[in-house]
Amino acid sequence: MVGKFSDWIALVEASYNLEGNDSQWLKGLLGHVSKILNRGSEPVGWTFHCTPTTFKLGSFSEGTSKTLTYAARMSHALSTEKSLDLTYRTGVVIATASELVFPRLPDMHKMFFNLLKGRMEDLLVINCQSGMGSGVSIGMLLKQTSQVTVHERRRWPQAAAHIGAAVRLRGKIAQLSSIDSPEVEAILDSGGTLHHARSPAKDQDVRENLRAIVRRIERTRTHAGRADPDEALSNWEGLVNGRWSIVDRFDTDGRRFIVAIKNDPAHPDLRGLTPRERQVAEYVGLGCASKEIAYILGLSESSITNCTARVQSKLGIHSRAELVDFFAPNGFRRKLVEVILNGENLLITTNQLIKSYQLTELSESEREIATYLIAGSTNADIAQRRNSSEYTIANQVQSIFRKLSVRSRGELVAKLQNKKN
User: Fold this and answer.
1) Mean pLDDT of the chain
2) What distance in Å separates the CA atoms of residue 56 and residue 377, rounded to the nearest whole number?
3) Per-domain boundaries in the chain
4) Predicted TM-score of the model (pTM)
5) Where is the HTH luxR-type domain (predicted)?
6) How far apart are CA 314 and CA 55, in angstroms?
7) What is the per-residue burial (b if ≥16 Cβ within 10 Å, else e) of 206-237?
8) DSSP E strand boundaries for 274-378
């Protein structure tokens, strides 16, 4: 049940409090989460880092009972890979275990029941992804089997976008120790007056837009602005202009300033995609809808739709469903590990990626191109790597598809993953 007067903006504000360590920060978040959820039990929070092949717990919320912390640690220690996939690699923001996990994995239900000696029937979990493999989870034990409400399903993805953005910010705290940090690209007061700007924020149109958005956020933070949670959350998106997080800073005289910090998700190995295209593709892979991605990145839904279409075009992927499969953390990418060696972004595999007998019909150059294709390189990127024309690469890609009896990159990946081949 969602409290009638729940202050969701207070939770957003607490997210951007960069003081203290992660455990102290989580404690502050949970104080607001308890009031919003209003389910009568104590929540526990933890940070995590999750890749397609690994999962690691981080810090737990300060002040949480030892019993809850123990239950959270043990449930993760006993979790199967499929359970971790469902919880962390599908993009689900809020769900109960009885909705998401137990029906699919009955053994996990049995483990949960035994771990808590039958005292609890269900678990509510909220996942706040940073978009870069890290995030925050909030768990709450429930005495009865429960379902997430319509309000919770609508509002928590928006609140989670801010918490995920805050996780990225906290990862660069050392860079933000000074107001002169290059990451701080604009400084404004609460009235929207701009006192300093650098990089894109120096553009006149961008500055005007930034001022307008800051004023809108400030109205959202008033008592009247908080009264309607849905409107308030809609008025304060996950990023401003797809680039900045808005954070309060106080000078030595106690005056409050608002700083716009560059905080969009950064990914290595663009493989021919622009940084924005890679960001969108990562969220698509998590199963996020265009509307949700638009809120997370602070862009229009049409921009996300167009960006998705460009990614599909560059990668030769025919549908959004195929794009989801290609970028899903629990899909083919499990076999790929991104590394940086001597300043160059590379993809390596955790096992033999392509069996030689699968590619016997291909020429040597086509085999190399096939490897680039399944790694996610665009035709333009492959052409640059091979010192060839994009037109030539496009013809060779079609030759590969024809020889292997596939129609697309997605079908190529699926065929090479098939153990029967």
Assistant:
1) 86
2) 29
3) 8-170, 173-262, 275-417
4) 0.82
5) 266-331, 355-420
6) 31
7) bbeebbebbeebbebbeeebbeebeebbebbb
8) 336-341, 344-349
